[in-house]
Amino acid sequence: MKSNGTTDIFETAGSGASAEEILTVSHLYKRFKLSRKQKQIAKKQEDYIIAVNDLSFSAYRGEIFGLLGPNGAGKTTTLRMLSTLIRPDSGDIVIDNSNVLTQSEAVRSKIGFLTSDLKLEEFFTPNYLFDFLPICAAWTGRRATSAKSSFSPCSE
Fold first, then answer.
1. Is the full-model pTM beyond 0.85?
2. Pick from 47, 50, 64, 56: which is nearest to 12 by CA?
């Protein structure tokens, strides 16, 4: 908190000892077994492909952090491990003092993850979601108005 009563969300890692580590990834490793067809397509003899190899990093509260890399670099695999959707073969992940491997329920209660691979049912229209999101907010004790009233669609 600044002296004028405001909070600067960008005042993090560069601000010295006050930066709170909210995510720690240590020596993360994940490999996937290749099927015979996958080996033929990739023209590889190896039985496994390494998706994430000894990845370590930290992120701090209030920091905007991104994973950048080409297709196949392991970004999605890393995010799936962070979100408890898949388990790493080795390594450790701690999110807000909760270990992903031993406290997966606690981790899931603290994060949200929406993958681009998610295929929603047809009834998940924008109107449905605008009506549903305030209900989700109410579950957490928050008051929310319908976002639909403030939404203005792009002109066609």
1. no
2. 64
In a domain, 3, yes or no: no
For residue 52, give the amino acid letter: V
Please, is 145 exposed, middle or buried when counting C-beta atoms within 10 Å of its C-beta (0-12, 13-18, 19+)?
Answer: exposed
Q: Is the pLDDT of residue 150 over 90?
A: no
Q: How many CB atoms lie within 10 A of CB 138?
A: 11
Measured CA to CA in angstroms, residue 23 lies from 5, 77, 79, 86, 147 at distances of 27, 16, 12, 17, 31
Q: What tens digit of pLDDT does each residue of 105-134 get?
A: 999 998 887 766 666 667 677 777 777 777
Task: Tell me: do 124 and 109 sit in the same domain.
Answer: no
**Domain coverage including residue 155:** 120-156
The Cα-based distances of 12 to 1, 19, 21, 62, 152 in angstroms read: 12, 5, 9, 6, 35
CA 89 from centroid of its chain's CA atoms: 19
Name the residue with higher pLDDT: 39 or 13.
39
Q: Is residue 64 part of a domain?
A: yes
Sequence-distant (6+) residues with CB within 8 A of 126 are 151
Q: What is the pLDDT of residue 9?
A: 37
Please tell me the total count of domains within the chain: 2
